[in-house]
Amino acid sequence: MDQIRSDYTFEDAPLAAGRGLFIDGDPNKPAQGFAYVPAEQISDDTVLPFVNMTKGDYETFLRMNWLAGAQGGDERLEDFVTGGGKSGTSVFWSYEDSLYSPIVDNDSETGVKMKMRDMYGSQGEQILMLPLEWSIAHDLMQKRAGR
Question: pTM for this one?
Answer without folding.
Answer: 0.79
